Amino acid sequence: MIDFFVTILIISSIGAGLALVLVLCEKYVVNYGPCKVTVNDEKELDVEGGNPLLTVLRDEKIFIPSACGGRGTCGVCKCTVKTGAGPVLPTETPFLTKQELADNVRLTCQVKVRNDLSIEIPEELFNVREYETTCTKIEELTYDMRRFRFEIKGGEMIKFVAGQFVQLVCPPYKGSSEEVFRAYSVASDPADDGCIELIIRRVPNGICTTWCFDHLKEGDDVRLNGPYGDFRMSESEAPMVFVAGGSGMAPFVSILHHMRNTNSTREAKYFFGGNSIKDLCLAEQMAEFESAVPNFTFIPVVANPDAGNGWSGEAGLVTEAVQRQYPDMSGHEGYLCGSPGMIDAAAKVFTGLGMPEDKIYYDKFA
Ligand SMILES: Cc1cc2nc3c(=O)[nH]c(=O)nc-3n(C[C@H](O)[C@H](O)[C@H](O)COP(=O)(O)OP(=O)(O)OC[C@H]3O[C@@H](n4cnc5c(N)ncnc54)[C@H](O)[C@@H]3O)c2cc1C
Ligand code: FES
Q1: Which residues are near ligand 1 (CB < 6 Å)?
Q2: Which of 14, 67, 165, 306 could form a disulfide with 74 if both were Cys (CB 3.0 to 4.6 A apart)?
Q3: Residue 28, CB half-sphere, CA atoms under 13 Å: how many?
Q4: Mean pLDDT value across residues 173-187
């Protein structure tokens, strides 16, 4: 019996050793040499093989949206690879529909450039750019949320639609050896196109948020690229229900600026969910929007308003507060931002109250 286990152990160790050698060879020894990436049958890029397509394109200033920074966990970085990509990897399949697989859609962070490739990307991505900025203001919003203002250098402008996101470039710092990219929804006024504001929540031990909270200072240079994403107000006149807690608030601040700028009279109710009173923020700015945007209402909802602290607003889960206000949501549109769990729970409540699935718009912060 012992012999059997020893044999299994030896075979497993040899397998693991070989896998490690292959990974190291792939990283340090194999040289794929110069490769050609043809974009939309027009543009030809001469690149060095060996890196993920996402990174290769980014080095050529072609920015494919990515929400997880290339870790293969968001499924956002899709593009059509007509030839040269090799077989689809198991890391890609959970994110690709049958139709996408048939159409040669791939995750650019998972496709390594090993030979010549021919790819197709939407024309609008050619408008995505990298911007050099200076961080000019850092504001505490709560114990774990801050608002950062980045002024674009050289008098340049960034045109974005309220609801879109940018990618912040987090440089290497003590404790993080690589440059990483993370997605953040723009929280500023689209009319204020010389700057970008972001509302960022600290994730314990998170690479980018640790840099934002513990290293980034006012006056520092910061790179970001964008804008990305199709989360935005629809063009209908249907009444809107926004649900977001924490940093999920960011795109709604931008959307409310847009509603004020365009004198929108569309009905909008924003349910902001916090765990406790210390999670609430931007009450003053929300009150200003309530005065300036005629049919906007802000409804903070506190899950655990500890007894005796004078909280007289909505209490319990944010979804319960929505249910109390709306017996029927069939004529409404839902807008959700934040963690996948919160979005799935709220979408279930919306559809349960009669809202069609295609009237629910969301950005999952994952
Ligand atoms: C479209 C989009 C828009 C976004 N907008 C915002 C925004 O406006 N404000 C904002 O603060 N964030 C936003 N995010 C999330 C953001 O991109 C990062 O994922 C987040 O800041 C964590 O990055 P990090 O490098 O600090 O953590 P990482 O180093 O990436 O993660 C460290 C660990 O924490 C876990 N983790 C990652 N994110 C979270 C989280 N949010 N909560 C709990 N655990 C987590 C990871 O699984 C990992 O185990 C958005 C994400 C997307 C996709
Ligand atoms: S960048 Fe997230 S899956 Fe590719």
Answers
A1: 67, 74, 165, 182-185, 198-201, 203, 205-209, 229, 247, 250, 363, 365-366
A2: 67
A3: 5
A4: 93
